[in-house]
Amino acid sequence: MPPRSLRAPLLGLTLTLATGAVLAAEHATPREARALFDQAVRYLQANGPEKAWPAFNNRKGPFVRKDLYVYVIDRQGTYVANGAAPEALVGLKVLDSVDAAGNPLFREMLAVTEKQDEAKIRYVWLNRQSNHVEPKVAWLHRAGDYVLGVGYYAPRSTADDARKLLDAASAQLRRVGAGKAFASFNDPRGTFVRDDLYVFAVDLQNGQFLAHGMNPQLTGTDAASLHDVEGRPLVQQMIELARSKGEGTVDYVWRNPVTNAVEQKRTFVRREQDSLIGVGFYRE
User: Fold this and answer.
1) pLDDT digits (tens, 9 = 90+) for 223-262
2) DSSP reduced 3-state for 33
3) Residues 107-143: pLDDT tens digits?
């Protein structure tokens, strides 16, 4: 058996390789994923584990569609069903396996369903079709000692998605005040971090981060001196824009924390009292 320090990476490699055939299929939509999830939950409730596990493990059955499949783990983190690769994964203990960002994915699944029957989580996973790390979303359902899940690759966020999140952040700040709003922006599991979008806030007086949804540890650090990979003083440009015009857009080049690739980015910024808030999206 490999040393404990190597087990999680090896498990991750096993999971990635085993699910490659399904992940190479056509991308399903969030609505299709939700429909399959609801169907699987109903089937489990109506038929019990004895019939449900074989049905979920049937790669040619109704519970494998496009790049969607149903999986089930027990409370010890062991697969009892996985439509992507039942031969390789059923019986495999994945409790200590992590996602592509190093987060303890399966422990989070168990924790988030401990006190509620249904939950939704976000994580990052290697898409074997594109060979890129991409954001993924999963719906989870707890049934006794088991957790059933269906995950889908989240669509790349658009300019309209970014604007809507910025509008929501503005409304939140006006509704609950700066302190509570910035705390909500800093919650990586909250509503202001969505796939590859997040809200950040900068103090217009001292140029420090007041919030940063992707990396809350940046709060209180100097933002104004940041430059993009091509040397542009991007935050200083945002500050000047917010002061002079109230809102606008700034284009720059930045490393996408989801794909880990350097990409073109456009950020919408807006002045709110003595701070600016912003939401950026990665352009194709």
Assistant:
1) 999 999 999 999 999 999 999 999 999 999 998 766 667 8
2) helix
3) 999 999 998 999 988 888 877 666 777 778 899 999 9
Query: At 72, which helix (H) or strand (E)?
Result: strand 68-74
Of the candidates 147, 130, 149, 129, which has an alpha carbon nearest to the alpha carbon of residue 139? 149
- How far is the CA of 252 from the CAs of 175, 182, 203, 239, in angstroms? 31, 24, 20, 14
Q: Which of 159, 251, 253, 224 is nearest to 197 (CA)?
A: 159
Tell me the pTM: 0.60
Question: What is the Cα–Cα distance from 62 to 192, expressed in whole angstroms?
Answer: 35
Distance (Å, rounded) from C-alpha 5 to C-alpha 7?
6
List the one residue out of 193, 208, 153, 218 whose CA is nearest residue 279.
Answer: 193
User: Who's near 139: CB < 8 A, 6+ residues apart?
Assistant: 33, 34, 37, 118, 119, 120, 149, 150, 151
Q: What is the mean pLDDT of residues 40-47?
A: 98
DSSP labels, 211-266: EESS-GGGTTSB-TT---TT---HHHHHHHHHHHHSEEEEEEEEE-TTT-SEEEEE
User: Mean pLDDT across the stretch 42-58?
Assistant: 98
| Higher-confidence position of 31 and 261 | 31
Q: Work out the widest C-alpha separation in the chain, in whole angstroms.
A: 66
Closest by CA to 190, choosing from 172, 163, 217, 210, is 172
| CA dihedral (268, 157, 129, 140) positive or negative | positive
- Nearest-10 crossing angle of helices 178-185, 159-176: 140
